Amino acid sequence: MATITQAITDDHRHIQDCYNEVVNSTDPDHQQRWGNQFTWELARHSVGEELILYPAFEWHMGIVKRLLKEFQSMSSTDPDYVPKIKELWCKLEDHIKDEEGHDLPALEEKLTPEHSESMARSFRRTKHFVPSRSHPLAGEHPPFESVMGLLTAPIDRLTDLFRKFPDKPEEAKPSGPRIDIPPGGNAVHD
């Protein structure tokens, strides 16, 4: 069974893979698909952390959420699209290093293996029914933000049907265990 540290670390690597697909491409269609995948994965990851991890060590990543809100509304043809995802990644990378280097090891020391495995399962399950976009009007403080997020998830799923994502499930998860693909994974619209 995976620990919560492994579940979060795997998710971080996947988000990084999506980021790399955007910044290492010059094709706007490819960038748009992977930018949508990046937004989808990061939004779900953030809410999953808020619901599962943050109660354990009471930490909040407000700047990353603000940058995600700005990035998700941009088009890959916007000249600031790649610079904005780079700015977002810079902040996110600091968060990932802190979390993996300090927060998660400190948390793991306090958890039994069974509790860590249970949290990992909860984290993965939670990502299946949380919003796939950041929602500025949902507020900034749990539990209100979490409740509002859960209410917006079905709307996100519907609008994801009309967003471009990588065409094949394998493309959306370049390595590691398979994570579910957004419902619009094969859509052809922006």
Explained architecture:
Residues 166-190 are annotated as: Disordered. This is Hemerythrin-like domain-containing protein. This protein has 190 residues and is mainly α. It has one domain. The chain contains seven helices and no strands. Helix 1 (4-23) runs antiparallel to helix 2 (28-57), helix 2 runs antiparallel to helix 3 and helix 2 crosses helix 5 (113-126). The radius of gyration is 16 Å and the shape is elongated. The N and C termini lie far apart (38 Å). The model is unreliable at 174-190 (pLDDT under 50).
Key structural traits:
elongated; mainly alpha; 0% strand; 190 residues
Element layout with pairings:
Layout (H helix, E strand, L loop, with lengths): L3 H20 L4 H30 L4 H11 L8 H30 L2 H14 L17 H17 L8 H4 L18
Helix pairs in contact: 1-2, 1-4, 1-5, 2-3, 2-5, 3-4
**Distance N to C terminus:** 38 Å
Oligomer: single chain
Q: In which range does the helix fraction lie?
A: 55-70%
Described by strand count, sense and barrel closure, the largest sheet is: none
Rg (C-alpha, Å):
16 Å
Question: Overall 3D geometry?
Answer: elongated
Domains (count)? 1
**Topology pattern, helix = H, strand = E:** HHHHHHH
Tally the helices: 7
Whole-number mean pLDDT: 75
Kindly state the number of beta strands: 0
Poorly predicted parts = 174-190
Share of β-strand residues: under 5%
